[in-house]
């Protein structure tokens, strides 16, 4: 007779341990699979790295340009301040992007180099869309206009011209449009995303403490539309930028500015023949006809291929052209939102930029500094840390600021101490004001999640700034005093740097945003010009003629950055790829959610497409 007790005991043990054994094996197999996949990905990256090294080994980075060549320019990618140091840029793997993308620095170098290159006979501007800020576009257009002084031709062609692409194309000798194509010409607009409705649905209150009637960066959290002061300032600076836009097109195309305004305002350019009728283009041609014209201009038989080189291949890489002079001018790139810490090539970390300024300041070979700023602002404290290094540098050598698409709020804070400030007519600047935001999420936790809070504290203000309850009136007053103090410091430092009274700076401050042209009229900038103008001014102030450009800070090592925050980079890559032009809204929302501390920043990032 079997021992039923033993059987029962065995069955119980089996029932208890079997699930755990299954989980154990699942874990083991999952770990093995993860290891295999990780090994596979690393193996692929290693192959790509080796391929990149082999492809560049023995190369001096220069491309051989045949005589009688045409420089092909097609800027169909977002344009950054500096070219990414990416060894995989020209490789294709797993369907990922592979085209090399130039930064503004190398785009300008390439066009300048082509101006004096006897092998380059002209430029073919393959224009469609242009993803950049308006000041960036201005610098490229000015470089093309300067190129034309050599007597060489520029021919522009596209099937569809965005407004930005058309503005760039107006630097050309001839503009051609596909007979079935179109020109987007309708004027500029600025749009702000408002979060008030979202916060209300979530029972979240944005507690705002600010200084500045025009400080509109807080409006998306407390309003569902623009305030009247904000509408007034946007109308003003956007109108200034549009006036410059139309004026430059008018000069190039010899069309009265009021006619251009009417064409855009009435949407009269609806068909290719309309563009030709109103002299917006020089002809309606198919691409083969344009290529035939290029062959004629370069004296090539119609049966032969045009000799061409792309700007991406042609442009000299940073540091490629060595100068013999021992004198140096340091160009320091401050790009992105301002924050404490290291930052990276896309954000302004106070430690990284301060260290770069300090390094240039203490280097006896560096005779002058050009601080290139492209920033909407950010942390007031981080801005002040960078300002301090600028002040120290100014005591030992000239410091010139060159403003890009925007240098506003915190971006202007770090600029104001310079000897001289250059901006483009369409640079967004000013916004001298500060604010702080502390969300009250009590109702969100209570009503939406069923979470409550309780605790103890050793003092009345020990939990000041907590998001689990609203601020008291006394706490609001304390924070308001700190924001007022920061604004007072900001306006005083601007007044000292610009040699104006603090009351005057307050009158044009209050968070108000200006275009570069408006800023020049109000004494916030000294001259309208590009980065080359700023460099020339720095050399003049330093009393040097021969010099070498050195760029700071050192760009992030591409191999190291490949493995740093790789998950975030992969996520951003696919989100950007999926959203396309709408990625800007994703960025705005992400930026809004990451605000902390007293801020000096603006919500504008105007682009024309």
Anisotropy-based shape: globular
Q: What name does the CATH topology of the largest domain carry?
A: 2-enoyl-CoA Hydratase, Chain A, domain 1
Number of strands: 21
User: Judging by the overall fold, what is the CATH architecture of the largest domain?
Assistant: Alpha-Beta Complex
Pfam family, one: Peptidase_S49
Family: Belongs to the peptidase S49 family.
Subcellular location: Membrane
Transmembrane segments: 27-54
Describe it.
- The protein has 22 helices and 21 strands.
- Strand 10 (343-344) and strand 11 (347-349) form a beta hairpin.
- The chain folds into three domains: 1-59; 69-185 and 269-314, 2-enoyl-CoA Hydratase, Chain A, domain 1, CATH 3.90.226; 328-436 and 500-601, 2-enoyl-CoA Hydratase, Chain A, domain 1.
- Strands 8, 12, 14, 15, 16, 18, 19 and 20 form an eight-stranded mixed beta sheet that branches.
- It is 45% helix and 18% strand.
- The radius of gyration is 29 Å and the shape is globular.
- Helix 12 (350-362) packs parallel to helix 13 and helix 16 (473-498) packs across helix 17.
- It has 609 residues and is an alpha/beta fold.
- It is found in: Membrane.
- It comes from Daejeonella rubra.
- GO terms for molecular function: serine-type peptidase activity.
- Its main location: membrane.
- Pfam families: Peptidase_S49.
């Amino acid at each position: 007779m079997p021992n039923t007790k033993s059987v029962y005991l065995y069955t119980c043990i089996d029932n208890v341990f079997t699930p755990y054994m299954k989980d154990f094996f699942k874990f083991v197999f999952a770990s093995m699979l993860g290891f295999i996949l990780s090994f596979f990905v690393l193996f692929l990256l290693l192959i790509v790295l080796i391929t990149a090294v082999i492809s560049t080994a023995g190369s001096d980075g220069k491309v051989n340009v045949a005589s009688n060549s045409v420089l092909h320019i097609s800027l169909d990618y977002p344009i950054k301040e500096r070219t990414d140091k990416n060894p995989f840029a020209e490789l294709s793997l797993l369907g990922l992007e592979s085209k090399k993308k130039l930064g503004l620095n190398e785009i300008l170098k390439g066009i300048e180099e082509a101006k004096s290159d006897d092998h380059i006979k002209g430029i073919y501007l393959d224009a469609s869309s242009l993803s950049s800020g308006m000041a960036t576009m201005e610098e490229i257009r000015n470089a093309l206009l300067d190129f034309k002084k050599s007597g060489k031709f520029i021919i522009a062609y596209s099937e569809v011209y965005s407004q930005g692409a058309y503005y760039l194309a107006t630097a050309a000798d001839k503009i051609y449009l596909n007979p079935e194509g179109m020109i987007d010409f309708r004027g500029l607009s600025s749009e702000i995303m408002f979060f008030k409705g979202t916060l209300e649905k979530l029972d979240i209150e944005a507690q705002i403490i600010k200084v500045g009637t025009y400080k509109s960066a807080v409006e998306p959290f407390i309003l569902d539309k623009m305030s009247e002061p904000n509408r007034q300032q946007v109308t003003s600076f956007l109108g200034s930028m549009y006036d410059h836009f139309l004026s430059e097109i008018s000069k190039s195309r010899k069309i009265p500015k009021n006619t251009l305004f009417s064409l855009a305002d009435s949407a009269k350019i609806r068909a290719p023949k309309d563009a030709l009728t109103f002299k917006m283009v020089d002809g309606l041609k198919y691409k083969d006809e344009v290529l035939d014209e290029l062959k004629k201009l370069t004296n090539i038989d119609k049966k032969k291929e045009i000799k061409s080189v792309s700007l991406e291949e042609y442009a000299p890489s940073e540091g490629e052209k060595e100068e013999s002079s021992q004198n140096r001018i340091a160009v320091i790139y401050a790009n992105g939102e301002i924050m404490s810490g290291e930052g990276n090539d896309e954000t302004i970390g106070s430690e990284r930029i301060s260290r770069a300024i300090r390094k240039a300041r203490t280097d006896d070979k560096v005779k002058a500094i050009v601080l290139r700023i492209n920033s909407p602002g950010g942390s007031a404290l981080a801005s002040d840390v960078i300002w301090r290094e600028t002040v120290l540098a100014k005591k030992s050598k000239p410091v010139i600021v060159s403003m890009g698409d925007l240098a506003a709020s915190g971006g202007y804070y770090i600029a104001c101490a310079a000897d001289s400030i250059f901006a483009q007519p369409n640079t967004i600047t000013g916004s001298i004001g500060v604010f702080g935001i502390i969300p009250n999420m009590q109702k969100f936790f209570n009503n939406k999640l069923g979470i409550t809070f309780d605790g103890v504290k050793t003092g009345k203000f020990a939990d000041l700034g907590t998001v689990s309850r609203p601020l008291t009136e006394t706490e609001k007053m304390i924070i308001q005093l700190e924001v007022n103090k920061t604004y007072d410091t900001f306006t005083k430092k601007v007044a000292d740097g610009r040699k104006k009274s603090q009351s005057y700076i307050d009158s044009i401050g209050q968070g108000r945003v200006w275009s570069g042209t408006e800023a020049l009229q109000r004494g916030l900038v000294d001259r309208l010009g590009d980065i080359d103008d700023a460099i020339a001014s720095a050399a003049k102030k330093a009393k040097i003629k021969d010099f070498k450009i050195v760029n700071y800070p050192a760009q992030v090592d591409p191999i190291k950055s490949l493995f740093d925050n790789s998950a975030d980079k992969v996520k951003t890559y696919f989100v950007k790829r999926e959203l396309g032009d709408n990625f800007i809204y994703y960025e705005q929302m992400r930026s809004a959610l990451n605000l902390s501390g007293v801020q000096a920043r603006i919500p504008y990032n105007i682009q024309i497409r």
